[in-house]
Design goal:
TIM Barrel, globular, 16% strand, single chain, alpha/beta
């Protein structure tokens, strides 16, 4: 495994991290989830990314993680970097969502209980809710660290001006923001300003949804398969997002990937890791085979100037941004 320095901290993260957003909930096959988590750890992926609402049902991904951890990996806790988040809808009532102090601290306590942990390594504010003052949310993160329930804090999806406010508040209270998490892929490049703000402030960058919910794989090169995320009514990838323009772009990118000796998914992951501001990319796998395919990304991370130019020419076309 390749490890990268997380911002200006002494902490290193694996180039690829395993995300539990999909395929680790109570509706998923437990043995498959177990095989993927154990396979990832054996391959050197020691950073596991969760959130309180991951499932479905919400909370069940943390329960799955905790069950595997304590059954199979309990003696390896100190070899892992475990992160979780709070801020999206989790339980009923006005306090079950958002960025308030009440929600974050209650959520942290619940997450620790579900995973059977005394602390997490990173606790994130999962989003800015548009209502809660930044000072309230950031002070909650500070207090979570000082209570011993987390070693570090992070933020996710904050707009750049508020991102800077978060960094300033946390630094002033001696709990600097270790890492910032943003959606990024060949089809989503809207977080470039966030990347720059993070770099200036010494915060690492972790990218999620690097394969655009599967569009940057070979799955949709010929349309929408019946077993795909886009075919599911509850999926995050919607049928209307699988446009002819994106399919054609994926086909063209796939040709470049083949010339490089990679799958499209591998090249898409390598393309993100080519950015020196990026600390780690979160992969979300549905099988051990997919996990192993993603891991092969690390065999070829470099790009020639000609390859980058050809990729950029494709990505500059209209109607690709998601």
């Amino acid at each position: 495994m390749i490890f990268r320095q997380c911002g200006q901290s002494s902490l290193r993260l694996p180039a690829l991290s395993l995300g539990f957003w999909h395929n680790f909930g109570s509706v998923d096959d437990f043995q498959t989830s177990r095989d993927m988590m154990l396979g990832a750890f054996e391959a050197g992926i020691c950073h596991f990314d969760l959130a309180n609402n991951y499932g479905p049902v919400p909370g069940s991904a943390e329960e799955t993680f905790g069950r595997i951890l304590h059954t199979d990996l309990s003696t390896h806790r100190d070899e892992m970097l475990i992160s979780t988040k709070a801020g999206h809808d989790m339980w009923q009532g006005v306090y079950g969502t958002g960025s308030s102090r009440k929600n974050l601290i209650a959520s942290c306590d619940q997450s620790l209980k579900r995973m059977g942990l005394d602390y997490v390594d990173i606790f994130y504010s999962h989003r800015y809710d548009g209502v809660t003052p930044i000072e309230e949310t950031m002070q909650a993160l500070v207090d979570i660290v000082r209570s011993g329930k987390a070693l570090y804090v992070g933020i996710s999806k904050y707009p750049a001006p508020l991102q800077q406010q978060c960094y300033d508040y946390l630094k002033a209270h001696d709990v600097p923001c270790l890492v910032s998490q943003y959606r990024a892929s060949m089809f989503v490049q809207s977080a470039q300003e966030n990347f720059d703000v993070a770099k200036r402030n010494g915060s690492g960058i972790v990218c999620f949804s690097p394969l655009a919910q599967g569009l940057l794989t070979n799955k949709y090169l010929n349309g929408i398969p019946a077993d795909s995320r886009a075919a599911k009514p509850s999926g995050f990838l919607k049928t209307e997002q699988v446009t002819a323009e994106r399919i054609e772009a994926a086909r063209q990118l796939n040709k470049i990937a083949k010339e490089r000796g990679q799958s499209l998914a591998q090249m898409a992951l390598a393309w993100l890791l080519h950015d020196e501001r990026v600390t780690s990319v979160i992969i979300g796998t549905s099988s051990v085979a997919q996990l192993n395919d993603n891991l092969m990304t690390l065999d070829k991370l470099t790009f020639s100037d000609e390859e980058l130019a050809a990729i950029n020419l494709i990505l500059q076309k209209k109607d690709l941004t998601m």
